[in-house]
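Field reference: sequence -> structure
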Amino acid sequence: MGKLALWGAAGAVGRSIAEALRARGQPYRVVGRSLGGLKATFGGDPLAEAVTWNPEDAASVRAAARGVDTLVYLVGVPYPEFHLHPVLMRRTLDAAIAEGVERLVLIGTVYPYGRPRTATVDETHPREPHTFKGRMRKEQEDLVLAEHAAGRIQGTILRLPDFYGPGVDKSFLHAAFQAAVSGGTANLVGPLDTPHEFVFIPDVGPVVLSLAEAPGAYGRFWNLAGAGAITQRALVERIFAEGGRPPRFRVASKLMLRLLGLRDPFLRELVEMHYLLTQPVLLDDSALRGLLGPLPKTSYEEGVRRTLEAMRAEARVPGAA
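Structure field:
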């Protein structure tokens, strides 16, 4: 795999991959816009080399990719700015190809599938996104696959469902974890009784590294499913029970999101993706298991316990966020 760079490293998936690299004792590069942010997250790890990039400056993008063999692309954008996904991918691909990067792994989402046509969705399911965000993610994927087909870089895509776990604050479940630790009422987005799936974030890092190393991984996309189908209600009730508190939550409907979105740009943009709570995309990762063998799948019971333990530990540290 050679020198590996985590491009947009500071998010939850980047931290999970970094943890898997530390477990191997493997040096790696973390790339982000803020050196201070990178050092705050990875400064305690002597294996991590922090490098900044400015997407508006082609020379900066090339410098961040220089000397890299495998680039894991994790760049996120705010919900109201999803048009940037293919733009930033194009700039990254151009720089990576110019610098001789051999492989690129894109961490993707279920958005390009659009509404599910089957109870579970494997990689043969059509990519027919009906949302703007899905179309932007599909364009991003198509750029990677086109450059692979042209022989300029080896590219592959790993699709993830929603995730949760220690350090994950952008999750449907985060408010429930907060309320279970600190008290109060959790604000949730419903409906709560539709089957859904979540992947435990520490399980992701080892899978990404194994995929990046697999010779047969490139030129296509792969699904990574969660630990099984479960409803938000069942999982939220488990979170509160493990936290030793009675469940206290309020649920926002799609109509409520529209109303709240009049003042909150994020909630306004969330309305478009609400179909995922009524027509969930439940992933089939048989193909990935066929490539890599058994995959780590932390049970929801264990994942909830470990997440609450991490949040309690963080709360005991003075000055912790």
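Note: The chain has a mean pLDDT of 95.
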